[in-house]
Write a structure and sequence with these properties.
The chain has helices at about 1-15, 25-30, 30-35, 60-75, 90-95, 100-110, 125-135, 155-165, 185, 195-205, 220-230, 240-255, 275-285, 285-300, 315, 325-335; strands at about 20, 45-50, 80-85, 115-120, 140-145, 165-170, 210-215. By secondary structure, the chain is α/β, with parallel strands linked by helices.
Amino acid sequence: EKEAVRIIRHAIDSGVNYVDTAYPYHQGTSEIVVGKALMDGYRDKVFLADKSPIWKLEKESDFDSILEEQLQKMQTDHIDFYLLHALNKERFEKIKNFHLIDHMLEARKAGKIRYLGFSFHDDLEVFKQIVDYTDQWDFCQIQYNYINRAYQAGDEGLTYAAEKGLAVIIMEPLLGGRLANLSEHVAEVFSKDKTSVEHALDFLWDKKEVSLLLSGMGTEQQVEDNLVYAGRSAVGMLTAEEKKQYEKAKEIYDKMSMVDCTGCAYCMPCPFGLNIPELFKAYNTYGPEGKDGMKREYEKQQVRSDSCRSCHQCEKACPQNIKISEQMKKIAELMK
């Protein structure tokens, strides 16, 4: 915790001015640690983003009580960017039934939040419905990278929201880290003067519709690297030849990828002891490395995919809507 606070403050001292957290992150401790990091004058140096956990709202008043809890955990009197977290078709109905836009407007009137937004995990049609639901949205947050161009909101959703006047914040720019550690088949498409991470981030910074991107950083070196990459970024920075490299990389990647898991671990813990993200990570080595490469990674897991009992608990929490129990059966069959 002490090291996390130090690194967050170092990032802010170096120019980072947007800090994103959420109610469930790090088993509910993220907001507390962020609050500690933003003490001693650091709160005034950043825009703070947090999210309302829609799945926890059982009645309309829960929105307000949870917002109060979040403010207390972070030791602040306001949240700059407040999102309705991980919206999909089902949660959109709850927003309407619980009149959550009205509650957000009341919270803004009271000075508790400044900008209204939502993060999103569903298909393009649902995304457009949510964007068009109210003219009170200030921003949205979507999963987007050079692989996920036709997935969820995708290219079309990015343009749609931007043309409606919403700021667009990008999450999963590295696809859960998978674009930081490319297979040789994909990596060889790109020029060697940049790292795989910089190539992935530049794809986003190049686009005028992108307002901001979120990149999770777990070490001080990752912070330093991202500061350098951001420092030399610009809208319209990519050449026509570079844009062709991304298209080719996506073409190769899509042929090799077995399942669209980003490693977010919302599915965890599994009641039967499976490490679902790690099992999917092993599965995704099948494309570039074949069955032998997959087996090498698969056998590192103490609890294998054949231990899945199809309880579907994980599937309810998966932002990618992966049919996890079906995939576990496929993995088990492949590894026989």
